[in-house]
Amino acid sequence: MNCSLVITTYNWPEALELVLITTIQQSIQPDEIIIADDGSTKDTELLIRVFSNKTAVPIVHSWQNDSGFRLSKSRNIAIAKAKYEYIVVIDGDMLLHRDFIKDHKKCAKKGIYIQGSRALLQSDFSKKILKTRKIKWPSIFSDDVKNKLNTLRIPFLSTILCRKNNQNTSRIRGCNFSLFKEDIVKINGFNEEFITWGKEDSEFVQRLFNVGMYRNNLKFSALQYHLYHKEGSANNDNIFLLNNTIDSNLVWCKHGIDQYLGH
Fold first, then answer.
1. How far is the C-alpha of 158 from the C-alpha of 204, rounded, in Å?
2. What is the C-alpha end-to-end distance of the chain, expressed in Å?
3. Residue 116 near residue 201, CB atoms below 8 Å
4. For 138, which DSSP code?
5. Domain ranges of the chain
6. 95, β-bridge pairs
7. Exposed/middle/buried for 97, CB within 10 Å: 0-12, 13-18, 19+?
8. Are 130 and 236 in contact (CB under 8 A)?
């Protein structure tokens, strides 16, 4: 099974550099890396050029003009460009365990949305990594990371837990998920009516559920470490869009990935 890794980013090349370092060090490489760029400046473009010379894996820079928060559109364009059947999506501030891609591919199954978890790095530890450009993984006993259980990779236990199917939208995180491209296309991808942060991932997953898909929680594998930054909260418009999808049992969004397919 071939795999495209999509990495979202916006004007934080210092973090993206570290993410790409962990990406090209994967035990099983993705077949391509697509940077879903929501309008970053030239610094990000130059960084991607540098890494394109460091790996045999093709790196595609999927860039769009900076017109405010348009993450859904950025993801749709990037996924439409993907050449391979399985899609893994992360954010550009997530450092990856070397078996991250391996773990996602192991649990891949049509009709299933794989939701991974993240370990939250503390502010001072994140600043140190960004300053030194040296990646160190905190242990379960370290105060440099929150939710310490998410630093444990236990493959046999992960395999057991990954069998549990559900249709629960709690703790949906767009920073660590995977599914087949055909399942994304089936619901027309991400809803581009979301033009501010929050709930765009939950609305996407709710439409997957509405079309008959299930979610598997990937625990104790596909580890990633989140560089600290402040997070926002969803506004009322985004909550309305999510609730409308739930109440109306929507499976298709009007403004989605179909406008980029075949281009």
1. 25
2. 24
3. no
4. P
5. 3-259
6. 225
7. buried
8. no
Residues of the chain falling short of pLDDT 50:
none
Token pair in block for residue 230: 């402040």
C-alpha distances in angstroms, 130 versus 97, 121, 190, 227?
Answer: 17, 12, 31, 9
Question: Please, which residues have CB within 8 angstroms of residue 152's CB and are 6 or more apart in sequence?
Answer: 140, 220
CB 27 within 8 A of CB 98: yes
pLDDT digits (tens, 9 = 90+) for 149-203: 999 999 989 888 877 788 988 889 899 999 999 999 999 999 999 999 999 999 9
Say which CATH architecture domain 3-259 belongs to: Alpha-Beta Complex (3.90)
d(CA 95, CA 216): 22
Q: What is the 3-state secondary structure (H, E, C) of 189-231?
A: CCCCCCCCCCCHHHHHHHHHHHCCCEEEECCCCCCEEECCCCC
pLDDT of residue 262: 83
